[in-house]
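worker-03 picked up job from queue 'complexes'. Input manifest follows; two sequence lines, order preserved.
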Amino acid sequence: MTASADTVDARSSAPGHFGPYGGRFVPEALMAALDQLEEAFDAACADPDFARELADLEKDYTGRPSPLTRAARFERECGGARIYFKREDLNHTGSHKINNVLGQALLAARMGKTRIIAETGAGQHGVASATAAALMGLECVVYMGKEDTQRQALNVARMQLLGATVIPVETGSQTLKDAINEAMRDWVTNVATTHYLLGTVTGPSPFPRIVRHFHSVIGRETREQILEIEGRLPDAAVACVGGGSNAMGLFSAFLDDPEVRLVGYEAGGEGVESGRHAARFAMGAPGVLHGARTYVMQDEWGQTIPSHSISAGLDYPGVGPEHAWLHDSGRATYEPVTDAEAMEAFSIVSRTEGILPAIETAHALAGAMRLGRELGPDAVIVINLSGRGDKDVETAARWFGIDTT
Amino acid sequence: MNPRTAAVFDAARTQHRSALIGYLPAGFPTVDDSVEIFQTMLDSGVDLLEVGLPYSDPLMDGPAIQESVEIALERGVTTADVLSVVDRLTPAEHQAVYVMSYWNPIERFGVQKFADELAAAGGSGVITPDLTPEEADAWIEVTEAAGIDRTFLVAPSSTDARIDIVSGATTGFVYAASTMGVTGTRDTVSDAAPQLVGRVRERTRQPIGVGLGVSSAEQAESIAGYADGVIVGSAFIRRVLDAESSAEATAEVGRFAAELRAGVGRSTHLSEPDA
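worker-03 finished. Artifact:
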């Protein structure tokens, strides 16, 4: 354990915590709802019917299992290590996000809630939530920072076409963190009828555990697939980390295999020295944000510092509390990847593999290029290809100077 | 219980009324103005002052508090400023000054240091709207040692078991959130409030303050019929936001405090004789 963990109270054994991280830092009015959610989740986990219903949806609606694709041409950019992509980009709606929303929407229905609310940054989780709500006949309201609604107008239209109401949030920095504040305010007011479909492994307990559970299918499939193809576990499993849900889904299957290195790549933005980044581990400190203790980008007074990343999905000043614990315990490591490094990897993978990755995912691809060179040609590396890049075409075109007018 | 907190509720009880509790963020509209406005609130009949510590992510607050806090933060108010505001106030013997703060700024400042410096500044207690007793081991220890009160919240959704946990961890007064929702003025304070206070009353002898949505002397009067403290925040903020000058803001806040104070005194407060 590092010094930073020692400075916080040891509460490793308390339920809902990951070492000293996690917990519930919420208005009392939400405590009953969190208890109810926890009970419903535990009951669902023990219910074979729930597991079957979810598995059917994953297979017939999402299109799981997602393939594990060898990236033979990209490997040359990675020092010759054998590279595999876990193809979450091929899921319905184009990213891993669907895994969690289907699970939570089923839970909401089990709890008798008729309305779901969600926060979204880039719009991927909002689109996935609107999709699940349409599928299950639930009312859906999505909170999105006003600035993000302008940056991601296409996803706003997508959500509306799916029948959701999108509410632009004009408070604070008008981005994801403020959308979460607004969703929490809605939840505390309408908790009797409403489930807050939180989109990542952050927030008060039990959300980090629930969201990890619904994404753990990524890790389970990957483990089975790599054993079948390579006959052994990978040397490293890597993913990008915004809130950290796709990474947690992948990591969860390898936590007890010390020979598998787990690496998360967070947004280094314009460089961690620039102050314009979302490098919570590199530059943040333990604190409390949005209901949990975790690493937070904050100033000396504990005020949240707005994050920056070219990728809206990584542009968040907090991170899932389990990642904070994996970081401190040394089980996983986290490194920043800059906008420029990510965009270079975006371009390379597009041209070598014929896959346009999400810019979030491109951070993991850039990280794998570094890691591959370090581990050498005998290494096997699995990358969670968490989403497709169609949503990012405009940003990428602008970055590379392609005229789209 | 901190002696000043005890004096607030003793004095109110002796006068057969509820205590008037008023909130504003420190540093709003400026640090100096807020000291003047707070002192005017005390001088106009507010018994217990909640000095708000502005925080970037106030997820329990409605539009008025969000706006005021953003103004304070844009002007660079810090935790040290908030403590200095408390230090500059001169409450009478039967008045108390609390700080209301989300948890992260306190944790970042250092829980021990915050409790000690607040006590040294003459503060009597702290209200922490997003800290539940389950996460408060260190906080309970340091506030106990520093002799300042700690207020946790109950809500209409709180089970009896949770009311026991919250009131067991609270010293000073229990904060009853009158409604499921965020702070802000409302035309009516929900029926949930008297029921909640009744449920809490059955389980603890600590004073109970009711907040969230109180915006007029009439509402204050009606809440005073069943609660030991009436908490008003956003309605004070509205008066500051609407004022054309800081002199006008101070005058309006003073006038409103006096109205509210008359309101909490008009109702027949049914407190238990030795509660």
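worker-03 released lock.
The first helix of chain A runs from residue 3 to 6.
The mean pLDDT of chain A is 94.
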